[in-house]
From TrEMBL:
Gene3D superfamilies: 3.40.50.880, Homeodomain-like
PROSITE patterns the UniProt entry points to: HTH_ARAC_FAMILY_2 (PS01124)
SUPFAM superfamilies: Class I glutamine amidotransferase-like, Homeodomain-like
Pfam families: DJ-1_PfpI, HTH_18
Keyword Transmembrane helix: no
Key words of the record: Transcription, Transcription regulation
Name of protein: Helix-turn-helix domain-containing protein
Species assigned in the record: Streptomyces hesseae
Domain (HTH araC/xylS-type) ranges: 227-325
Length: 330
């Protein structure tokens, strides 16, 4: 989804695709992100509709039901279609649902799936020849049952030509907030994240959540030390920090520090620092009228040119265009 802040003064239309067997947790995540009116706190307006083959209550695992309020054809007129995960990843999905997803995608509507919802998109053929991710415990099954899908084993979420997939459970929150951030800016996503008492974005991969032996006392101590280092770095983003600086704060060699950092967070120290600098710059661009060189300085980029390069690499836009899109959003 491309940034389009000025076009989002009217409610963004979100279609939640519902059919028997969808997971209640994913439905709750979608409803929490897009179904709660937070315009009084500065968040953008959303119109969330529950689209199903008919108006009969949709049964979910655990004895819960969901009441649809739109037919499936509404998905082709939405701004975004979101598919929850499913309880049975090999069960046939109702053909009307698959047809609706294909029609929406052909109409240029971005389509996103949470967790095992990737299997639904795969049944619809939307992942053929595309990169996709699902829960780490399901990647082998997705590859075996849908060999035309290029399964990414450890990402939190992946986009390929307007089709989004997310890894397990909490990664669905990450994707939903990222989709808000892409359409409305970092501040809008942060407002929703604060309301949900969750991080507005996480770095790293789902590799950090794969089952491992219980950490030793030394590993737990290293993890606590790294958390303190990250907190200290966030307070000093304007400084030209290096991996050697962070390692010194942790009392480790740079090589040992990088190894422990990657094992704990799923990303490298340099990648983490750059992600934090970009996020800080996004907030300053949305909240202030500071000139570009000052934004770059406060976020530790050193120069506006460097900041522009990192914005292009991570957000596919420039700082000036980002401010133009999102400065007045709210």
């Amino acid at each position: 989804m491309q940034p389009n802040g000025t076009a989002r003064r009217t409610a963004q239309r979100i279609a939640l695709v519902a059919f028997p067997g969808i997971r209640a947790f994913d439905v709750a995540v979608i409803a929490e992100v897009w179904g709660v009116d937070r315009t009084g706190r500065g968040a953008p307006p959303f119109e969330l509709r529950r689209c199903a083959p008919d108006r009969a209550p949709v049964r979910m695992p655990g004895g819960l039901t969901l009441t649809p309020d739109q037919a499936l054809d509404w998905t082709a007129t939405a701004d975004l279609v979101v598919v929850p995960g499913v309880d049975d990843h090999l069960a046939p999905v109702p053909e009307p649902v698959l047809d609706a997803l294909r029609t929406a995608q052909r109409a240029g509507v971005p389509v996103a799936a949470l967790c095992g919802g990737a299997f639904v998109l795969a049944q619809a053929g939307l992942l053929d020849g595309r990169r996709a991710v699902t829960h780490w415990n399901l990647t082998t099954l997705l590859s075996a049952t849908h060999p035309d899908v290029e399964v990414v084993p450890d990402a939190l979420f992946v986009e390929d030509d307007g089709v989004w997939t997310a890894a397990g459970v909490a990664a669905g929150i990450d994707l939903c907030l990222h989709l808000v951030r892409s359409a409305h800016g970092a501040e809008a996503a942060a407002t929703i994240a604060r309301s949900m008492v969750t991080a507005p974005f996480r770095t790293g991969t789902q590799a950090q959540f794969i089952e491992h032996p219980a950490p030793t006392a030394a590993e737990r101590e290293a993890s606590d030390t790294l958390a303190a280092v990250r907190e200290r770095a966030l307070r000093r983003l304007s400084e030209p920090l290096t991996v050697a600086d962070l390692a010194r704060w942790a009392g480790m060699s740079p090589r040992s520090f990088a190894r422990h950092f990657t094992a704990t967070t799923g990303t490298t120290p340099i990648q983490w620092l750059l992600d934090q600098r970009v996020a800080a710059a996004q907030q300053l661009l949305e909240r202030t009228d500071l000139p570009m060189p000052e934004v770059a300085r406060r976020c530790g980029f050193g120069s506006e040119v460097t900041m522009r390069q990192h914005f292009a690499a991570r957000l596919a836009t420039s700082p000036r265009d980002y401010r133009r899109s999102f400065r007045a959003v709210g």
